[in-house]
Amino acid sequence: MTPGSAALGHIRDRVDRALQAFVGQQRGVLLAAGDDLRPGADSIAALLAGGKRLRPAFCYWGWRGAGGPDCPEIINAAAALELLHAGALIHDDLMDASDTRRGQPSVHRQFEARHADRGWHGSADAFGMGVAILLGDLLICWTDEMFHASGLPADALRRGRPVLDRMRTEVFAGQYLDLLGQAVGDETVAGALRVVEFKTAKYTIERPLHLGAALAGAGPEPAGDGGTVRDGSLAAAYTAYGLPLGIAFQLRDDILGVFGDPAQTGKPAGDDVREGKRTVLLAIARSRATAGQAKVIDRYLGDPLLDEAGTAEIRAAITGTGAVAECERMIGRHVSEAIAALDGAPMTGEAREALAELAVAATARDG
Amino acid sequence: MTPGSAALGHIRDRVDRALQAFVGQQRGVLLAAGDDLRPGADSIAALLAGGKRLRPAFCYWGWRGAGGPDCPEIINAAAALELLHAGALIHDDLMDASDTRRGQPSVHRQFEARHADRGWHGSADAFGMGVAILLGDLLICWTDEMFHASGLPADALRRGRPVLDRMRTEVFAGQYLDLLGQAVGDETVAGALRVVEFKTAKYTIERPLHLGAALAGAGPEPAGDGGTVRDGSLAAAYTAYGLPLGIAFQLRDDILGVFGDPAQTGKPAGDDVREGKRTVLLAIARSRATAGQAKVIDRYLGDPLLDEAGTAEIRAAITGTGAVAECERMIGRHVSEAIAALDGAPMTGEAREALAELAVAATARDG
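Predict the joint structure of the above. Result:
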């Protein structure tokens, strides 16, 4: 994340502390069931120590933009989104067979190694998978616990609840579409963008903003028709800002997944290539590739043994298609669109500045 | 389940209808993300059509016993526990590599078969696993959504919330202990009983009763010290009833897992043996086995190719140790203890009768 992003830094430390307090208390509940749960509690704490805290930041500024006061309660409620995110990451890494997360072994790999090191019975793979499923489930459940124990008044929580519900159904639906797209071999740009809408744009930006606004009493609550907002203007502005920004955010992620510096991203170089991720960047590259470039892309995409030379070769092929330049243009256009949506929106000036700053921080980052 | 169990039948139809209404509404949310989500929605609906509805029944009678009135709102809140349970079952079947659930292929197997039948890209196994993780996650999240949309007053939900939270952390902790016990090769009766306490007795009986009582305003809310109750007598009676009954319930399950009739259990004959489940029944059998009996148990336990002849042989060996008779004695003793705990407890007479009836229904069943 770009250093000096005040709108994010301001929130991050407070979110970190709220998470530490919550997870410390949950550790007690786990250890009451048995001291054997310590490695699980440690693994959760280590995973939660990292992360950019983007979703809590958008939730917080969604609240402030709607006129909500700065207070510890909104930090607690916003921080709950990090628990959901951490749980989803554990499950995602398992589904993608990812080895690394936030510069550490992914959770399933940690417990696979623990099993293997100790020479335990049965399959180390299955043990790693089982523990990762359970720890992810725990974190997903803790989202609700932290949200409802945030200290916000009952009527605020009642207003926010349907937005949190919608956000979760959408993110898992988006992941399902992603899995299915991989399985059926959908390599279109449109297919990749549909996944980004649900899996990233709504989940990371639009819904956290809506959640903050709903908690502050400024709507939206999802209406019966399946997602439109009841009380128009602020929620609509958050959507008009959030959806293009979400796409720009994901495009930056796509570029970092192929070209990023491991020291910054916490993932090995070319990790998205190794995992065969079906990104918008790759869909654009494919749609523009010459026969020779397509051959290089097909050779390395999804190759678990991809090495430095292969990474260099596929990077050159992708760049050669013009896909990276096209993604950079799209990022610029979408960020401008997002920031323009803030003009004249019925929100506080402080929030407008913070959201403009967050738009840049979320898309100009190098990790 | 024993036919004619009025205390259960009374609730079951109403829980079924509440679940159908909720899942029908969620189907709309899923299909709004894409028609491709239809098979996922269908799979969830089919899984939720089955089940004994024990946890909702205990939650309902926990409420009634505390003086709560019969009303649709408590049925909705109680039914939410079935969503948690269905999600946990999907994940459990994945971890145990179970092929069958409620007489149908398990969810991961359904989607593995879908992938294979259509000749899709990549691994059918990985696709089945991914969909099972996501659908389980969705169901676990929907628990909170249905609970908070039950229509119960905000202060009732606020009182119930910590019990639901505790219940979920305990069940996933119990599953973790189970995985770990399998890995380290803990074959003791004490180890198996510790898993049963968290994974079954608290989760299936004690906490649902406590949840009903808390919703009705009769405590308990877990206190800061990690599990004791604030307002003593009713919650204490529910614990004194629930923990022994939970053990008896699981022992019946253990026996059915080896000796049950597939037409009644919805699982193949000897399924627990094939999966190498570390049950109390097997721990007792091992602790009493002669060298010859131990050899038979070791030969077949965890054998995925276990056939009819092998099933008959291991059944004879287990019966020969006296473990089945011992389990039946334990069931009788624990059910009596549970029913005795209802005497003089500060609850309505109707609830006392229903809980006594449920104790028998939950432990005398043949499927």
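Residues 221-231 of chain A have pLDDT under 50 and may be disordered.
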